[in-house]
Fold:
Amino acid sequence: MPLYYCLECAIKLGHLRPALPAALTGTHYQLEKYIKHTAPTSAYNFSTVFTSPGSETYRNYIITAVSSGHVQIDDRGRKNVVWVGSEQTGLTYSNGVFVGPTNAVKVVFHDNAQKIHGFPIHSSEIKAAACVICERPVPY
Structure:
């Protein structure tokens, strides 16, 4: 069962230690994820793409998410960070068609400098859980 932490509790417990390398496209894995979420191609059946595909915007969304987001530890022990924005972050892209805007960002592998990457999600996909420490609502 996944565990959810608000920003403050995640920091206190050491669950939120971002590993932001100088380049978020420094590995083949990261470059592939960056391309997937900034330049949709027919190689991906379903994807979300950032509205502004520039590397600085991409980096800023990841920094914002790991600075202000909430932590989910999934059933496999992976730590994900979700940040719900007040702006459009990207678009949902499915089968060659843009189908709607996104307004949140999910960062995966936030503590791994070789794999950290993010992608836009829509807040309608996000549910709320209680922080396991303080019981404040946490989006996931």
Q: What stands out?
A: The chain has one domain: 3-139. Residues 3-139 form one domain.
